[in-house]
Design goal:
Layout: H1 2-11, H2 26-33, H3 47-55, E1 58-63, E2 72-76, E3 79-85, H4 105-117, E4 126-132, H5 133-137, H6 143-146, E5 149-152, E6 155-158, E7 171-172, E8 177-184, E9 192-196, H7 217-221, H8 229-240, E10 247-251, E11 260-261, H9 281-286, E12 289-290, H10 294-302, H11 313-337, H12 339-342, E13 343-344
Length: 353
């Protein structure tokens, strides 16, 4: 039992204000962490950077045009970050399609902790933060963002600029205080290359993607890309309930040594009762995956975040159930093809489409 508690304690990230024995800023330290195989190191070195993300003064705020969902671009002491606002309470259940609804800021926070529990280290750092819209954001907001602020009842709101952003659908604070997530911007020296996800959806009613009807889809892809990566990450997507990964990114101009980078995990943890098996399509179609008490570990890892509790108990419970489903799918594959065929080494290679 003591060993278990030591493991749980090791998952905590203490948000400490200072870096030990360093004259560099938290942002400079974080930039040096990024290499082709990982975005951040072990938990013990992350606390000062995440503390800065949660507390540093906001000196500039602007719209963020990229993507379909509302977000703001903030500058914290010279560091660029992305702010995603709170839309839903922890207990709210997103119905309809598995990719329906607004972004969930707390899902971004939960995803980074699960990402490091699984040993991936392949997503930018994310931390929860409270921002006072009236005193922290509006005074430093650029005109394009400032023009989207409005008051609904007793709450300050904004709707920003994005593909689906509408004045009729603003994100609203609790009074003037808005809860959200802060995602650290990757260093500019690491350019990203976007790839269409081979198991992406059409998002059109009545129109299926090829993988949804072609039984030979994966064997066809094996001649084109290294599919060992996709099943590896579909497990992560399945555990968090993210059915909305239509693209994936890698570092550009890094020959064959770059990993897949897990960006934009906010369409996760929408419905704890829905275990969308189609997210695992690349696993059960290809039957290849890298060789290598989840609820307690995830809960422990998120315990020190400023917006804790990050997830409700039903969402924590369903992660355990989804992991069992993953193991059952892997067993189905090994029974059919044999363990040596299904379990492959982490090659850290990309053969781009």
């Amino acid at each position: 039992m003591k060993a278990f508690h030591r493991i749980m304690a090791g998952l905590w990230v203490e948000l400490v204000p200072k870096l030990d024995h360093s004259q560099q800023s938290p942002w400079e330290i974080a930039a040096q962490w990024v290499v082709p195989q990982e975005v951040y190191p072990e938990a013990g070195k992350m606390g000062a950077t995440m503390h800065a993300m949660a507390t540093k003064k906001i000196i500039k705020a602007d719209v963020n045009y990229k993507g379909t969902q509302l977000k703001a671009l903030l500058i914290l002491g010279g560091q660029k970050v992305v702010f995603k606002p709170k839309w839903y309470s922890r207990s709210y259940v997103v119905e309809e399609e598995p990719y329906a609804g607004y972004d969930r800021h707390n899902a971004e926070v939960a995803a980074i902790h699960l990402n490091r529990i699984l040993g991936f280290h392949r997503a930018p750092l994310v931390v929860g933060r409270y921002a006072h819209l009236q005193t922290e954001i509006k005074p430093v907001a650029r005109e394009q963002l400032l023009n989207t602020f409005l008051t609904v009842g007793n709450s300050m709101c904004f709707y920003g600029k994005c593909y689906y952003c509408r004045e009729t659908e603003p994100a609203c604070a609790d009074g003037d205080m808005m809860e959200g997530s802060i995602t650290l911007w990757l260093p500019d020296v690491w350019s990203l290359q976007k790839h269409r996800h081979p198991w992406g959806r059409t998002y059109r009613e009545g129109k299926l993607s090829r993988w949804e009807y072609d039984e030979s889809y994966c064997p066809h892809l094996l001649d084109i890309i290294d599919t060992a990566y996709i099943p590896h990450h579909c497990v992560f997507d399945y555990l968090i309930g993210n059915a909305d990964h239509h693209h994936y990114e890698s570092f550009q101009d890094d020959e064959d040594s770059s990993m897949l980078i897990l960006l934009d995990n906010a369409k996760s943890f929408g419905n704890p009762s829905l275990n969308e098996r189609s997210i695992l399509a690349s696993l059960y179609q290809c039957c290849i995956i890298q060789n290598g008490a989840l609820k307690s570990a995830l809960k422990s890892a998120m315990a020190r975040d400023p917006i804790s509790p990050v997830l409700s108990d039903p969402h924590l419970d369903t992660v355990n159930q989804r992991l069992l489903n993953v193991l059952a799918t892997v067993k189905q594959c090994t029974d059919q093809f044999g363990i040596d065929t299904v379990l492959v080494q982490d090659r850290m290679l990309l053969s781009h489409l």
